[in-house]
Amino acid sequence: MTSEAYANIPSFPDDVLTAPLLRLSLQKLLNADQDESDRLFSASKDIGFFYLDLRGTPDGDSILEDANRLFGVGEELLSLSVEEKQEYDFKEKESYFGYKGYATSVIDKEGTLDRNEFYNVSKDDILSISNPLPAPAILSNARPIMKSYILSAHSIVSLILEHLNKHLHLPNSTLANIHRLHAVAGDQIRFIKSPPQPVDNRQTALGEHTDFGSITILFNRLGGLQVLPPGKGAEWCYVRPIPGHAIVNLGDAMVKFTNGLLRSNIHRVVSPPGAQADSTRYSLAYFARPEDEVILKRLEGSDVVPPLAEGEVEEEVSSRDWIVRRAIGKRVGVYKGPEDWEKGRGTEVLSQRSSL
């Protein structure tokens, strides 16, 4: 997001604990700068989150411009009536695309409900890889912007995967070949809205979790995102939004592909800090995921990826089944109790390790 997008937003306070995320440069990664590539690999192993400065590159400037425009689309979309939005809730079809209403997912074992709503738009729909899903007019009219955003986001994801592929000593294009742009996958744009919470009743808006897929590119204007650094005694830290930067994090698939070498860190969303808490919080994310039929297990051909423990047998689960399990399993009407909570967990245990 550009600086102008932050003009009328209360300042992020300086007196809250913030995560010490590395700031990486898209331009340097494009130029194959070795030091920057090394920093990317370190961030991917250490905490699985980093800032990416997008300014000054064609894809970076394009996605920043598209993100600014899509924030407006998201505000209009999520301001539609509840009745209209509910027409696009497709969970009964085991689809994680479409609308998820406010307070319709549980965020902990006790069954506490979330305090956000969002709308997922499929990459395959926008790129005409799959049949189009029914959608409100505001989204139908925004298809060209969303296509531009997806193409830029996927290009950035592909660059990150290329760097990680080299550091992992995997055969050429191993990661790229399971994240092809025009293959069927669960990649999506997500528009998110979290309204202000009552001063005397502020709780977690989105519970602690790891992301389901490979790489997430996130834009926020307000704070509220928190990460829990690895290790015992760690404290939740806010992630400060920075103009011109995306917040990038790795998901469960990268943990499974590397047997825990790379990290999908635990994070959550709470009320924004300070004066920002009185504002409605909108976010825009692009979730890149492995192709639907890819099995999420340790990749072969690397002398860097740790071997499996003696006698360890990996679960045979496809990318699509993993996403459905994690995305749909905590929805009201599907979630049955603590047992389902455990089934719906991702790589949280590995996320909290101090080291391998």
Radius of gyration: 19 Å
Residues in β-strands, percent: 15-25%
State the secondary-structure class: alpha+beta
* Uncertain residue segments: none
Instruction: Give the termini distance in whole angstroms.
Output: 35 Å
Mean pLDDT: 93
| Inertia-based shape | globular
Topology of helices and strands:
Elements: E1 23-25, H1 26-30, H2 34-46, E2 49-53, H3 58-77, H4 82-86, E3 98-100, E4 117-122, H5 123-126, H6 137-141, H7 143-167, E5 188-194, E6 206-209, E7 215-220, E8 225-227, E9 237-238, E10 245-250, H8 252-257, E11 267-269, E12 281-288, H9 319-328, H10 338-343, H11 348-351
Parallel strand pairs: 1-2
Antiparallel strand pairs: 2-10, 3-4, 4-5, 5-12, 6-11, 7-10, 7-12, 8-9, 8-11
Helix pairs in contact: 2-7, 3-7
